[in-house]
Amino acid sequence: MDKEYAKHLMGIYKDKVLHERMKRRLEYFERVFKRDNDKRLFAELAFCICTPQTKARSGAAAIIDLYNNNLLFKGSAEKVANILIKHVRFHNMKAENIVLARKLYFPNEKFVLKDRINEALKNDTMVELRNELAKEVKGYGLKEASHFLRNIGFGQKIAILDRHIMRVMDKLSILPEGMTPKTSLTKNNYLQCESNLVEYSKSEKIPMEYLDFVFWYDATNDIFK
To answer: Which of 217, 141, 138, 149 is nearest to 184 (CA)?
Structure first.
């Protein structure tokens, strides 16, 4: 491990201003599931459909635009795509996936995943639920399913992996043997990287939900979602 770089990352985590920003974001995420309504939960599900190969802020802008045009909960795939094209890549495919997700997980404006999330919380099986969502939600992989669960307050045991995070892992020399930041994130590779991050989180005493923010801030100089 690059101890100097690890020290730099610890400095980000312990910086009073940055730490407070991270803490506020995580508290906000926790409130999404505990206090917000089903529409808000579906909006997060849809946001994570928008994010692949698109900046998070652009994905968020797309969801806000859909909401403001009364298309997030009722719009056809064609109308949704006409909004998404202004914000995200692969707008047609993502529009179809949002409409399908609405049909499967938001019938009659009821977020049906809520019971499964509560069950996973009760049984400490959030990682297993993440793996299921990665298979079930069209447009999701392990990253998007992890992102969704983190954004509703359940990022304690999972990693949101992409090229930015893998580059930080590479600098720390904690990528699994034989992997580089350009290595394809198959399921097996993803889980190996995640396992290494969990070990790093424990050794450095930086909680996983904070670690993503620390790595992301180091890579992009931003704290968002």
So the answer is: 141
Catalytic, 2? Answer: no
Q: Does residue 224 lie in a domain region? A: no
Q: Choosing from 36, 86, 143, 218, which is the catalytic residue?
A: 143
Confidence at residue 45, expressed as pLDDT on a 0 to 100 scale: 97
Mean pLDDT by 10 residues, the chain (225 residues): 92 97 94 89 97 94 97 96 98 98 94 94 95 97 97 95 93 95 95 97 96 92 87
Q: Which residue is catalytic, options 34, 157, 162, 171? A: 162
Domain that holds residue 162: 1-27+158-218
Please say which residue of 107, 126, 150 terminates a domain.
150
Which of 150, 182, 197 corresponds to the end of one domain? 150
Stated as kind and residue range, the H or E segment containing 42 is helix 38-50
Tokens coding 4: 């100097």
125 and 213 in a single domain? The answer is no
- Among 118, 166, 133, 112, CA closest to 49: 133
- For residue 25, what are its two tokens? 């974001």
- Specify whether 143 is catalytic: yes
Please report the pLDDT score of residue 107 as a whole number. 94
